[in-house]
Amino acid sequence: MTDHADHTDPRWTTRPETPADRAAVHGVNTAAFPTRAEADLVDALRADPEAWLPELSYVAEAPDRSLAAYALLTRCRVDDAPALALAPVATVPAYQRQGAGLAVVRAVLDAARVRGEALVLVLGHPEYYPRFGFGPASRYGIRPGFEVPDEAMMALVLDDSVPVPAGLIRYPAAFGV
Ligand SMILES: CC(C)(COP(=O)(O)OP(=O)(O)OC[C@H]1O[C@@H](n2cnc3c(N)ncnc32)[C@H](O)[C@@H]1OP(=O)(O)O)[C@@H](O)C(=O)NCCC(=O)NCCS
Known about the structure:
Layout: E1 13-16, H1 22-32, H2 37-46, E2 57-61, E3 67-78, E4 81-91, H3 100-114, E5 119-123, E6 135-136, E7 142-143, E8 153-157, E9 167-170
Bound molecules: coenzyme A.
Coenzyme A binds near residues 32, 97, 100, 101 and 127.
Keywords: Acyltransferase, Transferase
InterPro entries: Acyl_CoA_acyltransferase (IPR016181), GNAT_dom (IPR000182)
Organism: Streptomyces pakalii
């Protein structure tokens, strides 16, 4: 079980993005990924009022106040039930494998829990996300509308007092899936 107090790694200050961070957020995603696709995806999601939840776009600041890492949750649906999609997660290369990614993901998941969100979905490395409590989405009957290895589509239940919806994941249009 993940220790939710554990994201207070003193090296990283986690917080929601502010309007002043937008260019730097674009820069974190451009630096972390091979192409600008993820950076541009974030900007497209930011322009979608049905998807964008400003308090769930999270950054981790390095000690020099530059941005080291980024994690985004946006509104998606499982059939008609609201859920959140975690994407992208990015750490600038100079700060990778120093805990910044862990800190920013834990912080954004905690912020979602505090807001009363019940369910988060992620498509990603099956070695990375189980440490936050994610497991195969298929165990809940949740499925993407595209081909993907079963273990890469993962779900995290934040509120187990709410029945977990089964069905098809409907992503914001900006994901293009
Ligand atoms: C994946 C990523 C976000 C991880 O962030 P990070 O800040 O480097 O990772 P952290 O230091 O917080 O993570 C610690 C642990 O995560 C694991 N980890 C890190 N990168 C990983 C990867 N690419 N695959 C699997 N596990 C990984 C390691 O077990 C690591 O522990 P270790 O240092 O003891 O080996 C970062 O490497 C990144 O931006 N990569 C490029 C973009 C990307 O692939 N994003 C994910 C999309 S699903």
